[in-house]
Amino acid sequence: MPLCVVAIEQLQLHLPGLEGRGLVITGLSTEIEFLPSGRLAGRIEIERLEHIPSGERLQGLRLQCDELALEEAVRLRCGKGRFALADWRGQPLQGPFTLDHAPDRDSLTLKLGPVAYAGGRVRLELEYTAGRWRARVEGQHLAAQTLAALAAPWLPEGYRFGAGRLDLQAEAAGAAALLQRLVLDLQVGQVAFSNASGLAAGEALAGELSLSAQRTGNDYEGSFDLALDQGGLYLDPVYTDFAVQPLQASGQYHLIPDAGRVRVSGVELLQPDLLVATLEAELSPAADALLQQARVDIQRLELAGFFPTYAAPWLAGTAFSDLAARGRISGSLSLRDDRLESVDVVLNAVALEDPAQRLSLEGLAGNLAWGRDDRPRTLRIGWEGGSLYRLELGAAGFRLQSQGSQYRLLEPAEVEVLDGRLLIEEWELSDPGSGAMRWQIDAILTPVSMQRLTTALEWPPMQGQLSGVIPELRYAEGRVEVGGMLLVRVFDGAVRLRDLRLDQPLGLVPQLQADIEIDNIDLEQLTGTFAFGRIEGRLDGHIRKLWLQNWEPLAFDAALVTPADDTSRHRISQRAVDNLSRIGGGVGQALSQTFLGLFEEFPYDRLGIRCRLRNGICEMGGVAPAEQGYYLVRGTRLPPRINVIGYADTVDWPALVERLKAATAGGAPQIQ
To answer: Region 245-267: what's the mean pLDDT?
Structure first.
């Protein structure tokens, strides 16, 4: 019987579906071709492949192997193959691969790439043996936007990535769908992102991130190293330019997936010429408070770099938006539930400078301590010098106590103010930095030279001294008030302020209201200060219902008159007479043009001026009514007798101010 030989050139297999080991395969087609050379070639096509444990799905998979080998019917090897995937996460993939599969040993080795993906190239190596696997991935010049979409389930909700490229190298190992170990190196270039609210954004970010992870029980532990040296980061209201202030952060972390928490420890933070610090923290991304607790230990914080970037944005819109600072701070901060919990810092050679000259301090040193609990803490702070609204301040030191949001002075303190002293008997502060902030002070001002005071304030020079008592001066809800009467001693008399209220004292448009009583002022000291002309005698008066807005008068009722019981010498110079005439819009004779110009001064009985300011108009009056007009100066019965009479019942306030300036600036008077 002749021998019959059948040559098989090709085998094909078609299955509508296949299921096992967590895989579901739909539309499977295989083909093995026996080549004349004795080698094999193979092809596999799968319409859909789904990995049930991970939920991963592949669509339109095609594998072609031109060097296929079957060894002892238990080992499949492909030394040269190509794959194509119609759709994986929205993108098609294709490229070379090699495969070594030994079912008897339950092992698989797969190498893919290079594969074009996300605008760059990717390589993948996978080794699997008896349920355990190891993978290595390399990516070059990958689009950040595409990778962010891939990682969307692990990113905070609402974040979107735009431009930028990434290079990455990653090694991972695990069992089944469980990750056991990970080593990741990531290089970031020109990355941009933002969140839905626009309160967090990055632009042109560049840097490196190294991350390692090791599974311990149900948790993961590892380390990280982050460096950012280009681009900007905005976290409302702070913007950081890493090209100017690079950031380095490295430390360890402990991820607790079951609790949804991450603990970081031993984190070293470094921004050259700005910050050296360490951080311990616990975060819970799914909780209402992201930052569960944290502690920052500051070895060095340079205010010259820190203040404009991290502090100034919080002062925007306030009177100190342009405040500059220098010096160094060290200490610690603790936080809980996204709130500051305690502060304990040391100030070293700190200086504060307001370009508007409202505040400056030099040599500020000491410790600041605060805690949300009720434990009392002792503070010591002082400065070497400074100024407040251009008033020179000397060296001062304070011993304070903080308890919760309350602060108080533990012992009386002194502050040098020009050539006098502010003696502070009591001082209390509560809820600083909040809308509920309050403070109160009781103090005494010892005599200060009026000449030094007016020079510092750039006012016309005055003689004499200023002193006073400041009782229960308090601030609450944006308003400064005096509990009692504020007494100021000046020009050998007294000025008493009642019902003093100052709204928004450090705001852009402060408003002041007060009732002022003037008692027994020495006119010779007062007028000797200006080029107004000399007047001897005493002066009483009041400025009631005073209302200033941005330090400009809006309304008041004012009267300045000779006291009825004044027995002092009454004399007025020729120059003062002419200037009073100019202010009152009347005539006191142009003295230099009459025979009265032979006299340098004149006796008078009483003098006075009144003004009721409303809507920019001053309703004028004097010491007494005249037949026509009103007396600004009423002369004596004995010669040389002179009366100064005002005829203007109303005067435009800006015009009156200009007359006062002209009257006190010197030069020959001009009477119209």
So the answer is: 93
